[in-house]
Amino acid sequence: MKKNIYFINWHNGLNTLNGPTNVFNSLVKEITQEDNIKVICPETFNGNFTRAVKFIMSTFSNSEENIYCVNSDGLKMPYVIYLLSRMHKKHKYYMMVHGFRRLEDKFVGLDKKNYYRLESYILKNFQNLICVSNFSKSMILQYTKRIKPTYVIHNGVDLIDYIDLNKEKHMEKEIRLIMSGGVKKLKGALETVNLVTSLNNKNRPYRVTLDVYGKFDDKVFFDSFLEAIHGKDYIRYNGCVDKDELYEAYKRAHFLIALSYLDSFNMTVVEAMANGTVPIITENVGACEFVDENKSGFIVKLDDYYGRIEEILDSSFHKQEKYLNIVKNAYDKSKKISWRHKLNEYMELFYENKN
Question: Where are the bilayer-spanning segments (predicted)?
């Protein structure tokens, strides 16, 4: 029997091209009339939070069991849904979890104790959690001591219909790297600059270039990044661009580089693969669960990556047939995780879960 399903996301209108709201929007755009899903967000209620909450409360009068899935872009709406779940217990409640701010902020020196207390409380007590990776799930279980049901559904990706892989990815005199997702300490931005600089300091038959995309959230760190790339014509900071332009940049690149210290998922990994770009990422990236080592990408250790990356680039340049096979594997792998596939996984969980 069809159930009434509500996907809920309340955001501040900023950064909707990235992060949790981008994931939510990509997922719900696959909804069809047959899915029987209603979407509650600022766009559907003209930004009126009170009206949205009143509408949600009106749905509780339904005698049937409803399903509510709230996105964790901020804590305001998740906390409201948690409180409502305590009063209306016959329904099922899920929260989509994209990270753990307590750990992420600690790394960059931020301290928002009240926020972290509420975050930990919600993560520990919400009826059902859906994490974007097993890596994220393990962090949450470890630090909150949560015992309630916790599931994993990886993020999806837009499907790219056709790419001439041989034409786009052939290497001649340079190997093109791309780093997307922002200039952030947590994502190893300076480490990536130092890596590329060191690679170019050696005599090679190719030059390594790096294109960097995304915003910054720390002006002091960003200034140190700009200083580090000053005078290096092989490193370019391109700022924030729309998705189409970013996808074209992925197509031009040979490798995505993500030397993250802590990353619950990292959408750039699957976006790159969908454009035939091979990921080189640390084991601290949740999306590494989707990468087959040496088949559809490469996973390196954060404390010892230079030699391994040097080996990957040298081998790929001199054995391009093998490299192009990895490109094809990465591209083919992405086709198994379209956003429609992911929405189906959510629906299967909602209908099969007996908790």
Answer: none
